[in-house]
Specification:
- By secondary structure, the protein is an alpha+beta fold.
- It has one domain.
- The protein contains 4 helices and 7 strands; from the N terminus they run H-E-E-H-E-H-E-E-E-E-H.
- It starts with 9 loop residues before the first helix and ends in a 7-residue tail after the last helix.
Length: 193
């Protein structure tokens, strides 16, 4: 199977990841956190990153950053299924979580980050996020409600927006190869490619 494709922009990679998640939901499954990434040479990779609790997040982020550097990722999207709450009383309750709302809903949440090469070779990082509501009986998925960083005063930040090195960072091929070798050793795969 050829996994090479044209370079995706921030919304395209979000929509690509969302389509896979929609298929899972419509087939009756649950969506665990998945990351879809594109490398500079156009290959697409998929990484399952199920949540194991807040205490494991720093280690997961460190691992994802290493993978993204080693594979020269230039765009990625993370998609997961989440609980939502629109109840005014619930949202006003101090420390309330949507999962505790008896009238909670479900949605697919997607976060996407992509480096866009501008004329003259300057690189601009674009960040976007969106959600699509899930309804049950029958199961259906709504349209993606999308927003991008910097559009209309929106500022999108967070630990999952910084998995790639800063725009313009140059990492030599031998450094990427050394990182890949170290990751294989850590995974118990030895020196096999």
């Amino acid at each position: 199977m050829d996994t090479t494709t044209k370079r995706l922009d921030v919304k395209e990679i979000a929509l690509h990841s969302l389509e896979s998640a929609k298929a899972t939901v419509l087939d009756g499954g649950e969506v665990t956190r998945m990351l879809y990434a594109q490398t500079r040479d156009g290959k697409l990779i998929c990484i399952a990153a199920p949540g194991e609790g807040e205490e494991h997040e720093p280690r997961l982020i460190q691992m994802l950053r290493a993978i993204f550097i080693a594979d020269d990722v230039c765009a990625y999207a993370m998609v997961s299924e989440v609980w939502t709450s629109t109840s005014p009383a619930h949202s006003r309750a101090r420390g309330s979580m949507p999962m505790h709302d008896p009238n909670r809903g479900e949605a697919l949440l997607v976060l996407a980050v992509a480096d866009e090469v501008l004329e003259g070779g300057t690189v601009r990082r674009r960040i976007g996020k969106g959600s699509a509501r899930i309804t049950r009986e029958p199961t259906a998925i709504g349209e993606l409600e999308w927003m991008e960083d910097g559009v209309g005063g929106t500022k999108l930040t967070g630990r999952y927006t910084m998995l790639m090195p800063p725009p313009g960072t140059i990492i030599a091929a031998h450094e990427r190869a050394a990182l890949k070798a170290a990751m294989r050793l850590a995974a118990g795969m030895g020196s096999k490619p």
